[in-house]
């Protein structure tokens, strides 16, 4: 559904040697790789390891889109090693394969894609993907999907605290909220209003090599 935004740029992308992959029913113009056709035709047999195993774990695995904390938004390189390290994120904060993780963060950022999706793969947890965060629907979603873990950025918790009070907002299975940027006043209000949810605040940068965890609360 986003291809229309990219299509006018195709000539300049071709000149720069940038490949365009699209998932979804076509047709697409020449030079665009239609992934769905390739997936339908692909064998279910795995290729030998030497085909897909990276030669160097520090080579580029993927690019994510940073929010521009240190300048304008830009693409940032993520190595195979950093991607693999993200497999242990949810284990570090106390989640397990029995958890159901609610994720409404953009998947072009590191928090949503690598910590969220890859983190769930790392522990074998269920991931509930929400296309767009809705403060008014959040607790209903949690009850309907059996959510036990919420990955946030601080503003999402502020949106929830600022919602009008309603019956049943403490009747949920949420036990853990993990994320970044939660202000102390919102932290206190969140726990007072919605119950004894454990909060683990973390901080890291896409292009940094140190991550901080507030285990003590």
Automatic annotation (TrEMBL):
Lineage: Eukaryota, Metazoa, Chordata, Craniata, Vertebrata
GO CC terms in record: endoplasmic reticulum membrane; plasma membrane
Gene3D superfamilies reported in the protein's UniProt record: N-terminal domain of ligase-like
PROSITE patterns the UniProt entry points to: AMP_BINDING
Classification via SUPFAM superfamilies: Acetyl-CoA synthetase-like (SSF56801)
Listed name of the protein: Long-chain-fatty-acid--CoA ligase
GO terms for MF: long-chain fatty acid-CoA ligase activity
Catalytic activity, as annotated: tetracosanoate + ATP + CoA = tetracosanoyl-CoA + AMP + diphosphate; a very long-chain fatty acid + ATP + CoA = a very long-chain fatty acyl-CoA + AMP + diphosphate
Organism: Falcunculus frontatus (Eastern shriketit)
InterPro entries xref list: AMP-binding_CS, AMP-dep_synth/lig_dom, ANL_N_sf
Domain (AMP-dependent synthetase/ligase): residue spans on this chain: 48-211
TM stretches of this protein: 107-129
